[in-house]
Amino acid sequence: MTYLRHQFAFRMEESDMELDELDKRILRALQIDNKRSFAEIAEEVGSSAASCLRRIKRLRDEKAIIADICLIDPKVAGRRLSVIVTVELDRERLDLVDEFKRAMRAAPEVTQCYMVTGTADFVLVVSVEDVEAFDIFVKTKLYTNRNVRKFNSMIALDRVKFEPRIAI
To answer: How buried is residue 127: exposed, middle or buried, by Cβ count under 10 Å (0-12/13-18/19+)?
Structure first.
């Protein structure tokens, strides 16, 4: 995959959206708790509820806010094992890279997938019930992929930090 890395065939999307201080305060407040009413958020950020409503709608429409979700403890879902996997692909053909991306997006065990620079081509975060479930994932998603040259896995022993909020 050296060619893709050096040619920067992947592209990080940049937003042309400009955020003012009020937008930033609203985003910080929403990242802490987005269940609150517009009036409560408005009071916290020093704005009116109507202004807050308009700004949040704009932030959603312009994809500054990409999702409103509830984060759950993986253990509640029976996913007690987190595994970080680095994957090196065999060929640098774009169609095969896209095929791998589609496969990882479709795999429910893969909670995060990053195309990266360096010695690996992809880094995955895999959340499964146990080692046996990870073995099944490896056999069905990695060994069967004709473009996976090799992979390395690291079992997480302790989640020291998990912070989905973005500092803004």
So the answer is: buried
